[in-house]
Amino acid sequence: LLPLLLLLLLAGLGLGLGLGLGLGVQPEPVAPSGAQCLEHDCFGIFWATRPFAEASAACEKGGGHLMTVRSTVAEDAIALLLQNRSGRLWLGLRLPQPCTEPEQNLRGFQWVTGDRSTDYVNWAPSGRRCGERCVTVSRELSWEERRCDAPADGFLCEYNYEGSCSRLPPSEGLSVTYITPFGARGGDFQVVPPGSRAVVPALGLELRCDDEEESEGSRWSRGTPGAWPCLLANGGCEGSCGEEGGRPRCSCPDGKVLSPDGRACGSPCAGAPCQHHCVVADGSFVCMCDSGYRLGADGSSCEDDDDCAVVPRLCEQECVNTEGGFECRCHRGYEMVEGHCQPVSRCSETSSCEQLCEDVPGGYRCVCMPGYTVHPLDPSRCQLHCNSSQCPAQCNPYSQSCECPEGFLLDEVSGSQPLCHDIDECSMDHCDHDCTNYPGGYKCHCHDGYLPLDKNRCVKITTPSPEEDEKEEYSGDSGPGTQTPIPSRIPPTAEQLHPGAVVGIAVGALSAALAVLALGYHLAKKRCRPPTTMDYKCSSPHEKEMGLQPVTSGCAA
User: Fold this and answer.
1) Is residue 393 part of a domain?
2) Annotated region Disordered: where (predicted)?
3) Where are the extended beta strands (E) located within 26-82?
4) CATH number of 99's domain
5) Local structure of residue 238 (DSSP, 8 states)
């Protein structure tokens, strides 16, 4: 028996030496002696003698850092944690420079979070000091500088979280113990951070504070679906909790259904496979699609509709189907203007118009502004125009000069607007016969029996004598020939002929007519003894038609 006890003693000593020398065995993390939690922050106090570096590492191992005291709220938390216990505790302040600066707010120190912001300081009196310095807090809550490698009586840790769970509502006969992620245990927490556990020994129940992404908060839950006993926190039900068959069960209000965890209530559309939209209907859901899509055969997916095929004449010219819609396009030579296809304007491309341009089928034409008309020789230019006997003159305000249309005279009267007055060309005896004046010009007219020779002069129309028109003409010597009427002569227009040419043509035509008539008369006399009867039909005073009427001839065949 004695040798066995000696072996056990030696083994215990070896294990103790191994722990003391750190030979491959890590000590258990230090548990906080106390903790306080606010909505998003928890603070823990650790009464363990450590230098600054080891204290900082212990806080980080629990998911936090040495405490930053930036306001009186943090100071009050320290007072509650100390509970009048004496000792110096490390704070999260360290000097990153060779010496302190007593005149500065933080004396040159920096928080372990890497910043220097604070609304609160409580320094103990101290002068300028150099070397590696860190800060502790005492029972009097004053801040003291000390060497970082010197151990302090303990340290304060700070833990930050996105949310928190409120303590479970008290229930008669039920005690709850909360265990935080950083190792604090107790039943007096008002809030606890996510990841904390609540142990209820009387019910054999353990709950967990979990983050809820959908509700953007934290809530108590457990791994097993369904309600726990209703007397504790309503069984975890979001709706109502009741007994059914001796077991707790959650139920939800109308329009909502139980979530997969059997406790939360959600919309029937939560988790629905609808590709586009989900609509609640009679406690269930119906999938719907965006405009331009139709519901697939599976009742949840959406398929594109060919709008161009479904709706006839959806576009003016061309319709192109797109995913979930359509696009109207125009034929070549057209462009989309405010939702309509319009011919591409030739004016903007090739127009050389002086003033305005107007698109016409196949091209464009130039138009002029009021007071102007298209130039007769150059359709791209405009000239002044007045359609009355008197119009305002067109004046240039910069050069102080005015101008009038052709055929008008400028009348500048001092103190009044310059006017353009029509020139009465008819009073100037430009025309041989009659004259009509109009704004900007005039027109000559010829008397009956005359044709215009040019713009101003007239020429008399020459007419052949009746004797010459009544001559007959026969062809051949054997019997009556084919009658050929002499064509009427239409006088040429004066614009086409020179005066001398008109006279020469008239004389030549008259000579030719006389020669033809003489020849015809000679042949008729030789061929037939009875004379030939002629009828004349006059179609106008200046023009005659001559028709030949044959008579019975006594000549032998």
Assistant:
1) no
2) 461-486, 534-557
3) 34-37, 41-46, 65-66
4) 3.10.100.10
5) S
